[in-house]
Amino acid sequence: MAEKDFYEILGVSRNASNDEIKKSYRKLAMKYHPDRNKDDKASERKFKEVSAAYEVLKDPEKKAAYDQYGHDAFRQGGMGGAQGFGDFTSGFSDIFEEFFGGGFGGGTSGQRGPSRGSDLRYNISISLQDAFTGKKPKIKIPSYSKCDLCSGTGSADKSGPSTCSTCNGHGKVRSTQGFFSIERPCPSCGGQGSSIKNPCLKCNGIGQVKKQKTISVTIPAGVDTGTRIRISGEGEPGQRGANNGDLYIFVNVQKDKIFEREEENIFCNIPIAITTAILGGEIEVPTIEGKKARLTVPSGTQSETQFRLKGKGMSILRQSHRGDMYVEVVVEIPVNLTGKQKSILREFEKEGGTSKAHSPKSQSFFQKIKEVWEDLR
Ligand SMILES: [Zn+2]
Ligand SMILES: [Zn+2]
Q1: How many angstroms does the Cα of residue 209 sit away from the middle of ligand 1?
Q2: Which of these CATH numbers, 2.60.260.20, 1.10.760.10, 3.30.360.10, 3.60.21.10, describes 260-372?
Q3: For residue 135, how far is its CA from the centre of ligand 1 (angstroms)?
Q4: Cα–ligand 1 centroid distance for 199 (angstroms)
Q5: What value does the mean pLDDT take over residues 68-81?
Q6: Do domains 1-85 and 260-372 have the same CATH topology?
Q7: Residue ranges of the domains in the chain?
Q8: Which of 117, 252, 310, 350 could join 236 via S-S bond, C-beta 3.0 to 4.6 A?
Q9: Distance of CA 301 to CAs 70, 118, 272, 287, 294, Å?
């Protein structure tokens, strides 16, 4: 049969650059991809042609051979037979990586046998309250189901993978360069030892097709930013029956407006009235669980005094007790006073209410100053 010129198929000139070839291939592959052209035989054929052409032209070695010998370069074994040129899925997987982030089945380089699926990462951002109580969000992740076109075999004729003829199933090939014998992954099967001669066009030889599913995830109480939760087997599917990858949930805990977290402890600033600070009293303090705790403020409490509420802090991962809560009170100075209020305060001052005897900070401050002055003398 007369074969079309690979450059013609990709619509590029013979001296096109790698980038031009790649660009053109991607455009055409998207255009003719079976997912977009269901049951369209002509598109299927085009897609296959385009993929086969790219498989050769993207590889400098194969391209050089093709430039010199044309299609004959691949006719006698060696490069994976007259049809298909090995796994043309590898060319297409570049695109999937770009569009879906991750690619099917993970790396094929250097490994022997069907490879385990790639791990997936899912970032979730939760409130501090959710981190305290734990959460069971439902998340959408990619899922895979058996390809109905090839019954999950990955091959168009449902025959499944066959032992790679290039490496006889070893997954590696040896070449000798001078004194050195170099072993490298088999280029025909990508190191897997077997390949699918005639890949299914719907699933590109993977045997599975991508969908979306909703799963419920348990985020335990006490997580913090950077906590990773592994959900085994919910990653990308393994190739041809190999294990699935895992799903990793990466947690980010958002900053809270009121509470500041430091590991298992919670800090919070609370303004209190000057009279409460002077006379003492009870105040209500908000807690992370959305309740209120009572805090006794002793008379003569200074601003920025810290109180500890034991066991009112953050939950701790896999433990039943909690951290502590630290409340720092900020004494508020009243503003916009009436004349009467001001005169009461002047009265208070006259009574000696602000004298050194009642002002421990001033006392110690002026004591220090005095010492400095004496030292200077
Ligand atoms: Zn299929
Ligand atoms: Zn091989």
Answers
A1: 7
A2: 2.60.260.20
A3: 38
A4: 8
A5: 53
A6: no
A7: 1-85, 260-372
A8: 117
A9: 91, 59, 10, 21, 16
Q: What are phi and psi of 125, to 5 degrees?
A: -115, 125
Averaged pLDDT, 238-257: 85
Q: How many CB atoms lie within 10 A of CB 293?
A: 14
CA of 144 to the centre of ligand 2 (A): 26
Choose between 178 and 333: higher pLDDT: 333
Give pLDDT, residue 46.
Answer: 86
For ligand 1, an ion, list residues with CB under 5 A.
Answer: 147, 149-150, 200, 202-203
1-85, CATH topology level: Helix Hairpins (1.10.287)
Distance of alpha carbon 170 from alpha carbon 189, whole angstroms: 10
Q: What is the DSSP letter of 5?
A: P
pLDDT in tens, 122-169: 899 999 999 999 999 999 888 777 888 888 888 888 887 888 888 888
Measured CA to CA, the distance from residue 317 to residue 176 in angstroms comes to 57
Under DSSP, the state recorded for 312 is -
Question: Which ligand sits closest to the CA of 77?
Answer: 2
Do the bridges between strand 120-126 and strand 265-273 make them parallel or antiparallel, or are there none, so unpaired? Answer: unpaired
Instruction: Give 72 Cα–ligand 2 centroid separation in angstroms.
Output: 20
Ligand in nearest proximity to the CA of 166: 2
Q: Which ligand is nearest to the CA of 155?
A: 1
Pairwise CA distance, residues 22 & 70, whole Å? 20
| Beta-bridge partner residues of 211 | 143
What residue has token string 């034991």? 310
Task: Give the residues across from 269 on adjacent strands.
Answer: 328
pTM of the predicted model as reported, rounded to 2 decimal places:
0.55
With 70 as the cut, is the pLDDT of residue 202 above it?
yes
Other beta carbons within 10 Å of 62: 20
Tens digits of residue pLDDT in 168-200: 888 888 877 777 777 888 888 778 888 888 888
